[in-house]
Fold these 3 entries.
Entry 1:
Amino acid sequence: MDDKPSPEALSESSEHLFSFGVIADVQYADLEDGFNFQGTRRRYYRHSLLHLQGAIEDWNNESSTPCCVLQLGDIIDGYNAQYNASEKSLELVMDTFKRLKVPVHHTWGNHEFYNFSREYLTHSKLNTKFLEDQIVHHPETMPSEDYYAYHFVPFPKFRFVLLDAYDLSVLGMDQSSPKYEQCMKILREHNPNTELNSPQGLSEPQFVQFNGGFSQEQLNWLNEVLTFSDTNQEKVVIVSHLPIYPDASDSVCLAWNYRDALAVIWSHECVVCFFAGHTHDGGYSEDPFGVYHVSLEGVIETAPDSQAFGTVHVYPDKMTLKGRGRVPDRIMNYKKERAVHC
């Protein structure tokens, strides 16, 4: 399954419908190179911005311009907060994105919440909910203001759903709020460690502070959107900062209640793939229900002489990920009954 696809397999064997860009974990900071928390992997804080510039240049120059770019979260690093540089770094990254000729959809990750409160993010340029599409006469598919999620249609019969993986979280939340108390209770019930970012000794290592989860309200909304897509024979791409499938992620990087999210997705026919970031190492797996889980390699741990982004090309019978640098090429065939007849 993880063998590198042949060039012939990636070529346009059927009609090219549209494409979109994907990139994850830029984590820019105006700092010298450092290391991850374990001290095992180098992080290129300044160079990550050059990687982003290179990705944007590439997307702008593609022969078939992508319809949009999905930014999978952690756009600036948490270190910015320590140096009072959060707003300055965010402005620099957003100015870089202005060079992109197409819209970008921003997902929120843990590093967004290390730098900003949820309220701040809601009123920032990282809130791209204004790009959402609404389904007429189906109010149940309208997301609540209580979480940051929405859906949009980049091409007829294809729907993209952006999820809020920190809807349940102790990060970026008003600590006097009942929801914060609820989330802290969930975290402490599963993680008795003094250091809540440590998975040491946990049977469910995803219950750490740098992760989060999906509220039942958000999962109910997702279920309604996928029900509509099933009925209307749409293909669905789901986007989240946190991965939800163990075989496509380090176990410590999964969403708290990843099983609940999978249960919703597996009860529908329409979902083709689930894109996430967070792991930095990347991951890929097709689950038993034919949904492809792609955890994108993180820009922040990508050496200056490499790259980490991709373009997904969409066809009537499959999607192909054309990776750059350490992002591998992937082929994601639709289930037979899911092929689009154009």
Entry 2:
Amino acid sequence: MRPARLMKVFVTRRIPPEGRAALAKAADCEVEQWDSDEPIPRKELERGVAGAHGLLCLLSDRVDKRLLDVAGANLKVISTLSVGTDHLALDEIKKRGIRVGYTPDVLTDATAELAVSLLLTTCRRLPEASEEVKNGGWTSWKPLWMCGYGLTQSTVGIIGLGRIGQAIARRLKPFGVQRFLYTGRQPRPQEAEEFQAEFVSAPQLAAMSDFIVVACSLTPATKELCNKDFFQKMKKTAVFVNISRGDVVNQDDLYQALASGQIAAAGLDVTTPEPLPTNHPLLTLKNCVILPHIGSATHGTRNTMSLLAANNLLAGLRGEPMPSELKL
């Protein structure tokens, strides 16, 4: 009796150990991995995906029509190690009947923790203060030196009250936030009830909030939602934080708002492009804290994400229900 033909799986990056182990145990798969922590060059991606039955990819891997054509008719499953899917040509994928797995829920807590950390770091000017210690700027205790803004009795506006938006609000509430506002496609009264959050338009949220946290998905409706008009409506003392996607913000407009003192400060875990060039104007500003997209970067979360991505891939290849399938 002839042995069953192995299914070819291509993995576009080194992934955390739990996911790697799950794939290694799959006796029905032949797994090839781009063995690097750096993004795979496009030519290598095309070579690796050719003839593959399954693809495990990252946010930085653009899966477009050309790549799908190169992959060919064998490709049945794409599993992305992310909750975001804006790197996938979903219409084209749907046309071809390819199933898609993703990793929602598992990174909610880690991302919400990072959002709160970034908000506090930005509003209390921690990187700036730390630098003053190192460069000799700390000469004595001064009543007005290094003053920032506190959360007590404040109004916090959240753009996108989904899983992550709610988790951020839940963590901010004990800081004594007086009022939560949120905006999005539609009111979410059940989710908002826990925080007595009020649904308002984006311009209203900009005008009324002391702190704004962007936690929405990137869609045509949210692309550059935070632009010159948005920043002009914000308070001069307001702090802006983005942990969603870089393209939700017009970065040139943000730079002007920060440089001119139109808004107090900004904290970004996401930018356009990623990585942000080291000569980008935003990096010259003391009132802008930029992190390298580390929202889900805890050991536990990344391991859980990799295991879920591997299990999504294997279930899809075997024609079984995926633990987390994106319904197309």
Entry 3:
Amino acid sequence: MELEAQWWTGQLAADIHQALRYKELKLPSYKGQSPQLHLRRYFADLIAIVSNRFRLCPAARHLAVYLLDLFMDRYDISVQQLHVVALSCLLLASKFEEKEDSVPKLEQLNSLGCMTNMNLVLTKQNLLHMELLLLETFQWNLCLPTAAHFIDYYLSIAVHETDLHDGWPMVCLEKTKLYMAKYADYFLEVSLQDHAFLNYAPSLVATACVASSRIILRLSPTWPTRLHHLTAYSWDFLVPCIERLLIAHDNDVKEANKQKGQHAQSAQHTVFQSPAPTPQQASVQQHIPQYLQAHQPSLHYHHQTSEQQNCQQILSANHTASYPLQTCPAALQSSVQARGHGQTGAAMSLAVPLEVKPCISVSYNRSYQVNGRYSCVTPCFER
């Protein structure tokens, strides 16, 4: 632990972080214009499931999804080909980020359930062709920073012994760091599920994951000076991305509580019949994340309706006054790109440019409180 702490505070880690921050300024632009954009969530989840199946690192998973997003943004691809593209992106990312022994083999990929359901069989020649096409598209440059490349560096100082939990000193620093890492990993996966996060710089998304975790864990100050200096992001600049992450967390908590309510209702009907849980109830419990089961439905957030809602940021005065906006790239836009829906192409077209299609933009309520008084109950600590 001491050696790891020395590594993160050393000059080499700082130089690597600076190099990644420089590279992210030159990332390819994402327009969100794929005709198959409505299928994006499915293939992002597919990559996540396969990467978890082979225990790939988060950097490989995030790089694979990012490669898929950029490739879909440029070409009109059939649904069947998208499966090959998604797995090829995962293979390239794993070869770039993982050891050779951890890279999935062709036989293992063909044994996946999604391949058998689609009646797809990958061949060595098809994978090589697709990998070459991907590499040529990205000009053989796979050094594309993602939020997963920044998160560990920021987590190294995300929790400090001087932080307070609910205004009280922390009883166990190591336990707090453990929960911080779990929540940061959760928010990092949330950012993979929505292409709107591609409108933020990867370092900003990673920073927002840390800030959101501090809000959920009710640590104060919400955005300490040390994190402001390390990330070079002010609180004001983080708020739009934090709001998105907290809204997703809110929805996950409510969905988990809904499933728990259904489980309790089902158990009440069968209490006089059999004390043992039914397979359906056991399945529900298995699919509820443990870090969400403990929460209570006390989230003060009014969901958006079908009509456009008025947005108003409620920010703490001490955050606004303490951290002026600085060192933030001007080209980074926090506005949400429009979603696009189009017809699925019958074949892959590699030469015809796509046009941005007007559609409904994703809206979110700015009245979500991110001022350090987020009311989600987190019974993780004891005074």
